[in-house]
């Protein structure tokens, strides 16, 4: 059974907050979550001087906490133990990473605005710096999750994502699919035909899947799909397969244990995050991958 000792929900006082808090309730209704922290950081230095003058001696932190408390009361209720944390620090990423370590956060819930409404810069920074798994909830996503897609590259990282997804699917009765995107070694064209190259590539990948299923019997009954990248990126192929298969959740493994946090996220998760997919994206670290 998947148990989350502590979950952090990052709020930004925008319209997406209500959806994010409601989605956190949906998670708590389906999984065992022992405590939820609703957090917001006020960047006082970003406030205009005229606004500072207007609020005067008003305790902005108290006001923000009260606003969040109203949303939590309406959208979350008392389904599980929870706490509201409001800080006033210059660097949001640093204070959130500190909260993760201080309270033993295992999962962070992060909202994502679509299209031109957000650059996604803060979200990308958080994905790189937070020492925990992150569940990204787009503003257009649905709470109703029935089908899960897990792209793999046969690394330990992606296998951890499969194991978590399998456990999640068994626990909640979800439909699970594995996919692998492969590329052809085009440097050998025209020495061999494209048709022959495709046949060879599929043979190799199928052998990898057969070996994987032998070593991990729990994965033997999970259906898998092979997709050729062709003229698109791996992230683009993942997004197209998500839409085609009507999946409701995408799970990707993240690499960890890297002294340079900016190198730990990986190009595919970064591109997927920055695309306009409209399903929740669960980016998972294994416990062993996270530096303590």
UniProtKB/TrEMBL annotation:
Database matches in InterPro entries: UspA
Segments forming domain UspA: 145-274
Protein name: Universal stress protein family protein
Species for this entry: Pontibacter flavimaris
Lineage per the UniProt record: Bacteria, Pseudomonadati, Bacteroidota, Cytophagia, Cytophagales
């Amino acid at each position: 059974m998947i148990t989350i000792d502590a979950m952090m929900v990052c709020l930004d006082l925008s319209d997406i907050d209500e959806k994010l808090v409601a989605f956190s309730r949906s998670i708590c209704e389906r999984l065992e979550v022992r405590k939820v922290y609703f957090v917001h950081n006020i960047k006082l230095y970003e406030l205009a001087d005229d606004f500072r003058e207007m609020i005067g001696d008003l305790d902005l932190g108290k006001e923000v906490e009260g606003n969040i408390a109203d949303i939590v009361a309406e959208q979350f209720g008392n389904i599980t133990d929870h706490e509201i944390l409001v800080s006033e620090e210059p660097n949001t990423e640093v204070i959130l990473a500190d909260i993760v370590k201080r309270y033993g956060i295992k999962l962070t819930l992060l909202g994502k605005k679509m299209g031109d409404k957000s650059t996604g810069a803060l979200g990308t920074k958080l994905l790189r710096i937070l020492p925990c798994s992150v569940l990204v909830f787009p503003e257009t996503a649905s709470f109703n999750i029935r089908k899960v897609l897990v792209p793999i590259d046969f690394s330990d990282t992606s296998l951890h994502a499969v194991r978590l997804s399998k456990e999640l699917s068994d626990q909640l009765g979800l439909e699970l699919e594995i996919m692998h995107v492969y590329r052809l070694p085009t440097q050998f064209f025209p020495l061999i035909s494209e048709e022959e190259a495709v046949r060879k590539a599929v043979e190799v990948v199928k052998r990898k899947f057969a070996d994987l299923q032998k070593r991990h019997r729990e994965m033997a009954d999970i259906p898998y799909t092979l997709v050729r990248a062709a003229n698109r990126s791996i992230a683009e192929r993942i997004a197209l397969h998500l839409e085609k298969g009507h999946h409701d959740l995408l799970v990707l493994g993240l690499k960890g244990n890297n002294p340079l946090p900016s190198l730990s996220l990986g190009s595919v998760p970064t591109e997927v995050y920055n695309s306009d997919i409209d399903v929740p994206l669960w980016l998972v670290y294994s416990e062993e991958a996270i530096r303590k």
